[in-house]
Task: structure prediction
Amino acid sequence: MGLPISYHWRNLLVRKTTTLLTLLVVAVVVGVFTWMMGFASSLTRSLAVASDETKLLILKRGATAESNSAIPIEDFNRLNQLSAIVRDEDNIPLLSPEMMAQVSLPRARDGGATFANVAVRGVTAAAFKVHRNVKLLGKGFTTGRREVIVGQAAAKQFAGLNVGDTIGLGYGSDRGYKVVGHFSAGGGPMESEIWGYLPSLMNAYNRKTYSCASLRLSDDADSAAAIERIRGPAIQLEAKTERQYWQAQSAGIRRYLTVAYALVAIMSVAAIFSIANTMFSTVAGRTREVAMLRTIGYSQWRILTGFVFESILLTTVGGIVGCLACVAWLSLVGNTKDMFGATNFTTLAFEIRVTPAIVLWSLLSVVAVGVIGSLIPALRAARTPVVSALRAP
Amino acid sequence: MLRLVYLYRNLTRNNMRTALTCAAVALPIVIYVLSTAVIDGLDRFLDNAAKQLRLVVSHRASIINPLPSGYRSKIESLDPERTRLRSVCGMGWIGGRIENDSRLLSTLAVQADTFPATFPEFKLTPEELAAWHRDRQAIIVGRATASQFGWKVGDRISIIPSLPPYTPMEFHVISTAPHAADPVTNFCRLDYFDEVRKEADVPTDIVSFFFVKCADKEALDHFGGAIDELFAHSPDQTRTQDEKAFMTEFITQQFDLPTNLTILAAVTIFVAVMAAANTMSMNFRDRINELAVLRSIGFSGLALAGLILCESLLLCGLGGLIGAGIPFVAFNFTSLKELTVPVIQAIIVEPNVCVEAFLVALAVGVVAAVWPAIAATRLTVVAALRNLE
Result:
């Protein structure tokens, strides 16, 4: 039979100061860890949406982003010869010419003190067929008027993008475009964009070329072969799957995250030491008690697992406190973040969310920390020499 | 003397506890040193930007909109004598990468004639200056980029610009800019890039922004407004900021590193305080009857508090010494610096950061000792001795 839970629980309560301090160490480390996991997973989730393998992004050769690519219209037309493109019911290939520009807009979260570069994408009707996950939430833009629709992440994070607002777009930011509706894109990066009618925006931005294009391959098409074909002599453009493109754009931010993870790992080691310290002291203070438990029949294994369990109890409570603190922090300080693409200089807006999976991961790692920190002290407890310990004053 | 021996004996009587606490203080101090070093590096960069008394003129609508390179003469005409407005240098972002390599470069094409005067902090040698003015294909590469790609002065390199016409451009490395504030960015000549653009029939004579070197602070403030006014009624309106504000905007857009690292450093110090306080309270608890004996043989409560404080300072000081020492040695005296990881290369661990971190560790020691020290002064001998089982 194992030691009852109440035994460990009461033991933790006896040494209130030590328990509280250890708990705080764990809570802080877990809080930071949870925040970072939330950040990383929100970013990953947003990019995971943009990983449709049957969708290709077409750039000019040598361009590194949609925003610094320029595709002359005759180059674009060569894409029509690609046989792997899906055609719609009217036998029109799902090929979307696009133009990328950007507009500097105030962030809503700091009351407009700082500005972010928000992507403006000129599209035609084809875009809504190629970018399958884009769903209108309300009205779409009409082609005859200066109207745009706004991704819901952009609408939330940047000021002046409510339906009915007018924003200044165009090369001199002097052409008023009316926001007529919002759209969702399954949580992907396009939710941070503003979309309008391609010819109208090209005119507003003095562009004579498209920026980029996207197209949809049939489900059974070999994307690698299609990419090769597009690069080949007949078309001479650069194609990337959506996943490749966004992996490159988020390379910088993921490097920061790696560094941040390393720092949190160092903090976790500090937490392990702190727990070990506490557990050593607990074990040392209860030598006689342990000897007593051994005499009344508890095995070494039970003693060992008992102390490890006590540590897990302690760290788990700390972990829960840490997760709650993180959630509280996010709801108090705000959970909106945006990041800069590596070469497109446009903003990808997303929200940090603490999901059950993240909480589970945090708690699992906290249990691991508890086990590692308590193993050696628990071993020492299990090996308590019974007779001499009982004889000790 | 006796007290010192007592302190030493106290620290060594539970070696495991002392070692674990030292480590639990040292590790957060390591994080503190590293994050402070990164923040200081950025601050140094921004302070240099402010010291240079430069304005950055960019397109009002968006930083990716180009400005006509002819704006330079209009800006220059604001002060024809060039007494308050020293020089104007237009530059265009090229980005770039090299063949068969996914790593992205940061390259700017600059107006060659005014570049040395606008960026005097590069301290180009007379030979470098001569090469820069003579050779249209000259390029000054960032020192970190140079070591990352193995470029040396005299090398011929080929860079594919990230802008039309996207055709490879040949360059001659003339300097690795040992004094430049930004160790990453490469600078080549705009007239060469315009030549390449002209051949490919791509629009030329456009730049991303202008850097305007001013004579003094007063001129900086004056021209900041005057330039925007000058272009207020032209198709390309401008937004003029001082260089520090311009760079800060860039840095915060990336990941807001300074803020995030400051929070991280604060949190880690909190971890160190909790860990040290835990040890001190355990020590106090374990030795409560000992302290009672000391009280009863005549030591005052304050003396006991002093002993506890000294022990805590010694413990955390030791941890701080280790924690500040490891990064200092690692970044200044080992081959870690030669790793071609940009993040590591950008970190400079200066002695003053380490001293500061050590002081922080001592502060941690003081905070950790507060509660046990107060408890020691309030100790009632009889009650404590009665606790003796």
Summary: Chain A has a mean pLDDT of 86. Residues 55-220 of chain A form one domain.
